[in-house]
C-alpha cells in the first residue's frame, strides 16, 4: 500500500467523527485500519519528532505491524515536562523553544525572544507561528507543555460536541449554557468548549461563565517559579507573603465562582440550561442551590456535560443523585466523558455506564510497569494501565501512556455498541500504591510548605 | 484492642508464599500470620501477627525495665549480643538476610555486609565513647550529677530515660542496630515501628538478645512491630504524650509529614530529616590521568554507596573545569559506577518519569551530556545547573562550576554530607557549607565513614533522646538534702 493510501486510512478513521455512530464498529474491523494509520503516522513523524526518533532507535522499531510495536513509542505526560525548570524560571525562551521542538511535529523555529516577557507572552508568540501549546493545570508541580495545531483544537471541540450528541443530548440553540469555570485557560480548553456553546446556547441569552480572573498558564507558572525560589532559599519573606496571598485569592475566586454559578442557575431556572463543569464544583454549586431553598422541581429539564472523574475530590457516595435531583438532570440528558489533556478526543459514557473509545483512538492496555502490552480479548474485562493512540493529533505524537488503572473490554457493550469500552471505575496508579516508603534520603521539596 | 485486616485478612493458601515477619513485644516474640502486607519497594507480601495495641503500652506509674540498670551492665549486654550476632547460632540473622533480600531493593551482598556491620556496631568501648562524646560525661545516664553554679546554687542533673517511638527507615539494616543500641543506652522504653522494606532486622537482633538472656531488662524495654505507615487506627491510638515522650523519625517527606500531625505538647519530634548529599571536586582532579581515575573512583564510591538509597549518597557533583574536562570526568565516573556493580550489584532501573527526563536531555546535546543508561548500572548526566529531578538508582548529576565557591548557592537546608576533593580544600569551604545548611563535610570517597559519636543531622542524637531533668537543691551553703 503506498503512503498516500495509508495516510488516507488515518483521515478515514478520523472522518468517522461525522458518521452517526462511530462507536459501533467491532475492534476486529478497526484494528487493521488503526495499525495501518499508526504506521503511516509513525513513518511520517519519526524524522520530525526527535523524541520519537530516539524511541524508535532504542526500541529497534521500524514498522508498526502489531499493537506491541507501539508500546516502546508511547509518551507519558512526563515527556512533556522534561524541560529543566530553571529555563522557565530564568525565562530562557530560546532554550525552551529548542526543547519544545523535540516533542513537536512541526518545527518550532528559532525566534528573537529578547522582548518576550513571561510565559504567557512566549505562548502567544508561539500561537502566532501556529503552535497552540496547552499546559497541564497542576498548581504546584511542573507544567506539561503539549504542542498542537489549530486544527487539533478545532477537532477536539468538534469531536466533543459529536460525543455529547451521541450520548443522547440533542443541541437545538434552546438552552442557556452555564459553565462553572475553574479550568485553566489553555488553547485546548478554549477550543473544546466553543462548538458546544454555539450548538446549545440560545441566541438571545448570554452564556454564563463566572466572572473571576482566569487561571492562566503564566499565572500557574508564577507560582511554580516562586516555589523554586522558596526551595533555593532566595525568596524574600514579602515574596512568600505574596505567594500565600495569591493562594488565598485563588481560594476566594473558587468560592466566588461557586456562588456566582449557583446564583446564575437560580436566576435562569425558568429556561432550560446546559451545565458544564467538574463533579467537585458541581456538587458545591448544588449544595448552594439547595441551601437557598431550590431543588429539581424549580428547574426545567436541564442537560449537562461533565468531563473526568472526581480528581481526588472527596464527595459523599450519593453525589450524583444529589446533583441530579437538585438541578433536574437525568442520565438521558447527561454526558460524562473520560479524557485527558494529553489526548485530543474524549470517550463518552454510554447508557450502560461505560466509556466508549472512538475508532480513531486505539486503546492499549499495559501492565502496571507500562512496559508490556496486555493482549486485547473480546470476552470479559481486563485490568491494566491505560494507554492510547489518538490518530486525530497533528501537532505532536499521538501515543500516550496514562497513570490510570482501568478495566477494559474489546467486546460488545451491554448498550449494544460493538467498539472497545472502559469501565466507569477508573483509579490512579499513584493513589493505589502502598505509600509508606521510609528512607533517610529526600529532597528540598519536603522543606517547602504546601508542596511535599 | 486488637487490630487486624489493615492490609487484608490472610488465608491459609496465601501464607504459603508470603514471608513471616514476627513481632517482638516487650521481651516476648509474637508469631502469627493473621495479617498480610505488601512491601512498598518490591511489592513482595509478608505476613505478621495481629497487632495488639494494648500490649505495646505500659503506664507511666511503671518505671521502664532499664531505668535502674547501670550503663556498664547495658553495654556488657549489648556487646554480648553483638558477639552472638556474629556467631548467629540461632540463625536469626541468616534468616533476616534471606527475608530482607526478598523485600528490599538492596543487593544481598550489601545486606549481608550491613548485617555484619550491625553486629560489629555493638562494641562496648565504642558505644561508651559514643555516649561520652554525645553527653560530655556519660555518668549523667546513671547518676544525678551535682553542680554548684557561680551564684552558689546547687543542682543535680540526670539524663533521665525517655519513652521513645522509633520510626525506622527501611533502607539500612544497620540503622536498626544503632537505634536499638542508643535506645538501650539511654535506658528508654522503646517502640520500633519497622519499615515495609525491612520488617525483619530489628526483631532478629531482639531475638538474639533473648538467646543471651531471655529475662534481661534490655529486651524487656523493647518492642518492634509493623503497621502500614500512616495507618491512623494505630497511630492516633499509640502516638500519645501519655505513653511516649518523643517520636524519633527517620524519613523522606511523607514519613515526616505524617508524623508531624501527631505532635503536641508533651510529644516531641526528633527528626532525621530527608537529606540530599553532594560532592565538590576541585580543578586539582585533572592534574594527571591517575589522579582523575582516582577521583572518579572516590566519587563513584560516594554515589553508589548502598545503591544510592541513603541520605549520605552523593547525587549532585560540582566540578571545577571546562566542558572537555567535565566530559572526561563524567566518562570515568560512569565507568567506575559500573565497576562497582561487580561488588554491590545493579540498582533497579530508573522509574519511567525519570527515564523520560534523561531521554530528553540526551536529545538536547548542546546543553546536556549523558553517559550510560537508566538500567541501574550507573548513569551520569552533565548539566549547567543541578537537574530538577532527585537522582536515584546510581545516577550522578555532574554540574560544572568555575569555582567551588560558586556551588555554595546550591547548598540548602536539605544538604547533609558534602564530599570534597582535594581534602585540603575542605577548610576553605566548610564555613560556607555550614552556613548554607550542610551538616557534614568529608573527604571525597569517605561519605560512608563515621567518627564515633559525631553529630548527625546537626545534633548529638543521644543528647536529644534523653529527658534532661534537674533537681534544684537551693544554695550550697544551706543544709544539703539527705539524698545528696
3D architecture notes:
The complex is a heterodimer of chains A (452) and B (484). Chain A is 38% helix and 14% strand. Chain A contains 13 helices and 15 strands. In chain A, the strands form 3 sheets. In chain A, strands 1, 9, 10, 11, 12, 13, 14 and 15 form an 8-stranded mixed beta sheet that branches. The N and C termini of chain A lie far apart (53 Å). The mean pLDDT of chain A is 88. Chain B has 484 residues and is an alpha/beta fold. In chain B, 35% of the residues lie in helices and 22% in strands. Chain B contains 15 helices and 23 strands. In chain B, strand 6 and strand 7 form a beta hairpin. The longest helix of chain B is centred in the last third of the chain and has 22 residues, at 323-344. Chains A and B meet through helix 3, strand 1 and helix 5 of A and helix 10 and helix 13 of B.
